[in-house]
Structures are given as C-alpha cells and as structure tokens.
Give the backbone structure.
Amino acid sequence: MTAYDAQTALDAIRNGRQQALAEYLRHAYSRPYLVVAALGLFAVFASFDLPNPLNVAAVLAGNALAMGGSYVHQRRATVRRRTTGREVLGYAVASVVTLVFFWAVAIAAYFAGLPARHTVAAAVTALAVVAASYAFRPAFVAMLRREGEG
C-alpha cells in the first residue's frame, strides 16, 4: 500500500463520517417529529386546567403522542449512534429548564389574571421549545463534531 492509497482510504472514512453526521442531523431536526413532540408537550402541560377525570386522559394522550412520536422517529432513523453522557446531561438540563420555564410562565399568567393560565403557559412553552431547538442547533452540531473527532 502506498502513502497515496492510505491517504485516500482515510479521506473516504472521514467523508463517510461527515455524511453520516449530516444525515443524523437532518433526521434529528425533521419538522414533523418536532411538531408532534411540541403537541405532546402542550397536551401534558395544558392538562392542569382540565377537571380531574379529563386531565388524566390528557396527560396519557400527550405522553402517548410524545413517546409514540419519539419511537417512530428513532425507528425511521437511517443513521443510528449511541447517546453519549454529554448528550444525556444536555437533555436532562433542557428538561429541567423547560419545566422551570413552564412554571414561571404559569405564575406570570396567574398574576396577569388570565383565565386558563396553564394552557397559556403550555402554548408559550411549546413554542419556546421549538424556537430553542432551532437556536441551539449549532451548539448541538459542534458538540457532535467534537465527540466524533475523539
């Protein structure tokens, strides 16, 4: 094997990794799954305004929508990779920030005197999560590229 052959093989491996990462990111940020997740989040958070038997049904429906969408999203992925510890930590922090944001908006809606404060807070939170997913995409891409190099 010549030096040229070795370099060509390494370039082909790097190109394959870049293509796999691009496909992974394209699928991770596909709009239909993001909309389904936002609707599930809205249904769960808005259920606090419903009376007792209906709020349980809304929580179950919202969780089924979010988890079913997540399952289909993972099954249809053409590129699969293991989740790293940094990603799990990032998802946990994002979940806590989402809950804190929801309750802050709900408290603000209460003091503003809005009638269905949890529904308003759920809508604002779902829209904020969608906007944040697009805003934090460059940081997520940088993290994945950094972990792919090591």
